[in-house]
Amino acid sequence: MSRLIQQILVLLFAVLVVVFATPLDKRATQISLNSYTFSNNVLAGSINIQNIAYAKVVTVIYAVGNTWSNSQSIAASYSVSGSNGYETWIFSGNAVGATQFYIKYDVSGTSYYDPGNSVNYQISSATPAASSTSSKSSTVTPTRTGAVSVSIPPRIIPTSIPSEPVATSPSGCGNWNGGDSCPSDSVSAFAASAENRRWQTPPSGAGGYDPSFGTYRDLVGYADIQYNSARTAAAVVINAASRTGETLSYSFGGAAASSSNVFQVDSSLTGALSIAISTSSGKTLNLDPINFIWQNTALTAAQSTFQNGQKGGIVELFGWPWVDVGQECAFLGKAGYMGVKIWPPNEHVWGSNYYETDKQFRPWYLVYQPVSYRLQSRSGTRSELRAMIQACRAAGVRVYADAVVNHMVGQGTDVQNHRNSDCSLYSGHNATAGSPYYTSGNTYLINPQTGTRPTMEFPAVPYGPSDFHCERSISSWTDMNQVTKGYLVGLTDLNTENPYTQDRIATYIVDLLSIGFSGVRFDAAKHIGPSSIASIFAIIKKKMGGSMPADYISWLEIILGGEASVLACDGGADSWYTNFNTILSGKGFTQSEINQIKIWSSDYPKEMPICGSWVIPASRFAIQNDDHDQQNPGSSSRDMQSYGSVLIKDKDVPKHRGFEVQLFSRTDADWQIKLVLSSYQFAAGGGNGYPDGLSDCSLFTGSSPASACLGIAKDQAFVASSCGYTMKAGGYTRVHRDLTIINAMRAWVGLGATTASALGIAGCT
Taking a C-beta distance cutoff of 8 angstroms, is the pair 68, 77 a contact? Predict the structure, then answer.
């Protein structure tokens, strides 16, 4: 090719870019612009990048005319991941007078550019009164019609914060343990002055900053969905706070930012809604895109109505990745299960540079230590979760979430450095979505942002110290002040009497229902208390338009033992069997709505009914043979005597199968919700993390001896032709695929018997 022809082609190429302003075919497959908008001097859009490494920086650099400057840049932030090895990042920021831009992706010491080859995206100026948009696919334009009445959520940051002395570093082997302990039995609230210690996240460029921390140093917020009574429209209310009190603006669906934090949508919106919050100085917080309840797939493929979702068998797929659950739902639908319950879908504690004090590498119990309510866990991303739910609903299978809302992480489990009383040091954990989070446990360093000692803070929720109880251990299980306001095994206990905390929990549950869940298991509900959780249910109901979906159910984990008289039998203020119903009735719940809220029967099968008789109807209880807490050696409920069987303890398939069949065939009480645990066996060496491949010790990168690491290798969860009871060390058990159990369940819900061939597992029994 001659030099003249090359020059002509380059000139024509540049002219085409200026005239049409459309994305180009990319030279670098590692990064690609999806779409962008430019309106009112705000440049916003989304980018597709290849997930090459955990640490990465994506920056949009723009010019004014032909003038480029280091200050003319907008940081992009992570939004969602796909299953193809790519992630979506979004950006939004002030770009006054911008005329062109390009994108830079820095990862693993290499920089990738889009469009590349010294070519830039040209921003059209032909229609200055409207938004300039360039996109490979149509930009979502959310509707602004309709008017859902809006309730203003409580403030994130309390007012009138009293002063607090600045801390000095402890000497020797000291740390700040006990600094936030409750001063007396009558005090449970965190000291109000601790709010002076909020905003601990480092800014970009400071030591300890990770790109996943975004702008949490200066800006926090979340989306609150509030439906109309028909749930055909909703108001999206953004509750946000700026550290320095800056003026905020809000962008919905990539449209131009405005000063209104309320956005009205209706059922004409069929895709996810993106949301960006910006400060007047140009800092931007991109929220995870949200979905709405009308966007969920109908359950037309279900073999039964299951009494509108009020009676049926639910499989618990312990440790299964979302992708595998979605694939398994075709089988679950054919088998006649009403639903599947998955483990906590929210962001939680993670780690790769060391194993826990019990030598476990990424153990299962870390999923019960929430970092935020962002839907990104070890089991998958928000987009994978939603895809799984829709696949299950298409197969006629409802999906239920496990909600951990009593507490956040354990004291001393956060992103900071820590010192034990013996002077030994340990570094911080990260989180499954990369969000920062802080506790005070075992800390000893002055936070460089606040200039004082650390406190409880979870910016991605956001929660601060006022949203927690002061630190108190639980030593008496009949002292309800300790039970509902103490730190269960050291887990930082949320102040669920606080109106903001209640509202934020309710907002999370509404997000779960909006993305497609049909109900929720409430973990550690006993430690929240009847009054607080009734208040949370009332807020959920209000946000859902004044009623719950007709097929909604929830079940509350209330483990009973020596405290049964207080929590159940005596009918007092703390009784879940009587006073809880009274509180719900007082908040406007009808009997049918109360019946949707079940109590998980911890007394089944060995001690039921624990009060000697059914204080409330048996139909209000959810029952199961063995549960996930019993999987751990040393669990106090493992000894089921002759009444049941823990499969991975007994390893006796006929015995376990008999108790699962009995679960469905017994007629001594009118239970409506029955659960089947499909678990996994721990590794031969004792590793108890999920066998999803992420707890394999080959991924351990710390300095401790790798030989001490207790991990578990990958076992493929979904196997289309698998039979039930696949018993091997470190492998999934697939109890729910046992034909005898399936037919016992089907008989209970009124379905005819099926065969292995009809289920696609010919040869299985």
Answer: no
Q: Which amino acid is at 164?
A: E
Cβ contact 765:355 at 8 Å: no
Q: What residues are paired with 263 via a beta bridge?
A: 236
Q: How far is Cα 164 from Cα 686, in angstroms, rounded to an integer?
A: 47
Which residue, 520, 418, 536, is CA-closest to 173? 418
Return d(Cα 151, Cα 707) in angstroms, integer. Answer: 56
Helices (H), 337-408: 382-394
Span between the terminal Cα atoms of the chain, in Å = 70
Amino acid at 18: V
Q: Calculate Rg over the CA atoms of the chain.
A: 27
Instruction: Report d(CA 326, CA 321) in Å as an integer.
Output: 9
Pairwise CA distance, residues 102 & 115, whole Å: 7
Position 181, amino acid: S
Displacement of CA 237 from its chain's centroid (Å): 20
Write the burial class of residue 155 (CB in 10 Å: 0-12 exposed, 13-18 middle, 19+ buried): exposed
Give the number of other Cβ atoms within 10 Å of residue 572's Cβ.
13
| Nearest by Cα to 247 from 237, 258, 236 | 258
Spatial CA neighbour of 309 closest among 665, 664, 596:
596
Q: What distances in angstroms separate CA 543 from CA 155, 239, 529, 540, one per listed residue?
A: 17, 15, 21, 5
Assign residue 473 a region (left: φ > 0; alpha: ψ between -120 and 50; beta: otherwise).
Answer: beta
Give pLDDT, residue 139: 33
Judge whether 725 and 733 are in contact, CB under 8 Å.
yes
How far is Cα 415 from Cα 351, in angstroms, rounded to an integer? 10
Confidence of residue 26 (pLDDT cuts 50, 70, 90): very low
Compute how many other C-beta atoms are within 10 angstroms of the C-beta atom of residue 271.
Answer: 13
Burial code (b: 16+ CB inside 10 Å, e: under 16) for 113-143 equals: bbbeeebbbbbbeeeeeebbbbbeeebbebe
Phi/psi at 466 (5° precision): -65, -15
Q: Are 690 and 680 in contact (CB under 8 A)?
A: yes
Q: What are phi and psi of 656, to 5 degrees?
A: -65, -45
Give tens-digit pLDDT for 591-634.
Answer: 999 999 999 999 999 999 999 999 999 999 999 998 888 777 76
Contact 498, 539 (CB under 8 A): no
Q: What are phi and psi of 307, to 5 degrees?
A: 50, 50
DSSP-derived 3-state class of residue 466 = helix
Burial environment of residue 247 by CB neighbours within 10 A (0 to 12, 13 to 18, 19 or more): exposed
Length of the chain measured in residues: 765
Nearest to 321 by CA among 62, 694, 696: 694
- For residue 637, the model assigns a pLDDT of 65
User: How many Å apart are CA 459 and CA 249, to the nearest integer?
Assistant: 19
Strand, helix or coil for residue 339: strand
Q: What is the pLDDT of residues 687-705, one digit of tens each?
A: 999 999 999 999 998 878 8
CA dist 510 and 389 (Å) reads 15
Does the N-terminal peptide bond of residue 459 adopt cis geometry, omega within 30 degrees of 0? Answer: no
d(CA 707, CA 722) in angstroms, rounded, equals 33
Residue 749 DSSP SS3: helix
The pLDDT, as a whole number, for residue 15 is 32
Model pLDDT for residues 345-376, shown as the tens digit of each residue: 999 999 877 678 889 999 999 999 999 999 99
Question: Could you write out the DSSP letters of every residue in 539-550?
Answer: HHHHHTTSS--T
Three-class HEC string of 167-228: CCCCCCCCCCCCCCECCCCCCCECCHHHHHHCCCCCCCCCCCCCHHHCCCCCEEEEEEEEEC
Whether residue 111 has pLDDT greater than 50: yes
Q: Which two tokens stand for residue 373?
A: 């309510």
pTM of the model: 0.82
Which one is predicted more confidently, 636 or 392? 392
